[in-house]
Amino acid sequence: MPSFTAPTKDLLFVLHDLLKVETQDIPGFAELDRDFTSAVLEEAGKMAADVLAPLNTVGDVEGCRLENGIVRTPTGFKEAFAQMREGGWTAIDCDPDYGGQGLPYVMHTAAQEPMVSANMAFNMYQGLTHGAYSAIYFHGSDDQKRTYLPKLVSCEWTGTMNLTEPHCGTDLGLMRTKAVPQDDGTYKVSGQKIFISAGEHDMAENIIHLVLAKIPGGPEGIKGVSLFIVPKFLVNADGSLGARNGVSCGKVEEKMGIHGNATCVMNYDEATGYLVGEEHKGMRAMFTMMNEARLGVGLQGYAQAEAAYQNALTYAKDRLQGRDVTGAKYPEKAADPIIVHPDIRRNLMDQKSFVEGARAFTLWGASLIDRAHKCDDAAADGLISLLTPVIKGFLTDKGFEMTVAAQQVYGGHGYIEEWGMSQFARDARIAMIYEGANGIQALDLVGRKLALDGGKHVMAFFDMVKTFIKENEDNAALKADFLDPLKAASKDLQAAGMFFMQSGMKAPNDALAGSYDFMHMMGHVCLGLMWARMARAAMEALENGATDTAFYETKIATGRYYMARQLPATAMHLARIMTGANTVMALEAANF
Amino acid sequence: MPSFTAPTKDLLFVLHDLLKVETQDIPGFAELDRDFTSAVLEEAGKMAADVLAPLNTVGDVEGCRLENGIVRTPTGFKEAFAQMREGGWTAIDCDPDYGGQGLPYVMHTAAQEPMVSANMAFNMYQGLTHGAYSAIYFHGSDDQKRTYLPKLVSCEWTGTMNLTEPHCGTDLGLMRTKAVPQDDGTYKVSGQKIFISAGEHDMAENIIHLVLAKIPGGPEGIKGVSLFIVPKFLVNADGSLGARNGVSCGKVEEKMGIHGNATCVMNYDEATGYLVGEEHKGMRAMFTMMNEARLGVGLQGYAQAEAAYQNALTYAKDRLQGRDVTGAKYPEKAADPIIVHPDIRRNLMDQKSFVEGARAFTLWGASLIDRAHKCDDAAADGLISLLTPVIKGFLTDKGFEMTVAAQQVYGGHGYIEEWGMSQFARDARIAMIYEGANGIQALDLVGRKLALDGGKHVMAFFDMVKTFIKENEDNAALKADFLDPLKAASKDLQAAGMFFMQSGMKAPNDALAGSYDFMHMMGHVCLGLMWARMARAAMEALENGATDTAFYETKIATGRYYMARQLPATAMHLARIMTGANTVMALEAANF
Question: What ipTM is given for this predicted complex?
Answer without folding.
Answer: 0.97
